[in-house]
Amino acid sequence: MASIRQSKLESLLKRDLSDIFQVETRGLGIKEMVTVTVVRVSPDMSFAKVYVSIFPSDNAQAVLVTLKEQQSYFRGLLGKKIGRQVRMVPEIAFYLDDSLDYADRIDQLLK
How far apart are CA 31 and CA 66, in angstroms? Predict the structure, then answer.
């Protein structure tokens, strides 16, 4: 169960990373839409798991590799945005959230 501080930091990271992705992914050659779906922060608030949804999902693994290669770049941008609101900007790790693809596949099977 997450504490109130963790929940607030999770929502702050989700909002600001979404803003960063809207602007910065084009410069990295990512043409797909990257959406932050869930952020989970460790209890000591030093590490954050960021789950992203990528549309269209045809090239999702390649986009995820690009995001993982640029983790320090995104952490630096995040630090510029939230540096005065938190003591320490957490390390971030990106994971693919394929729950939308899974739901779509189940929907297709039910039809």
Answer: 12
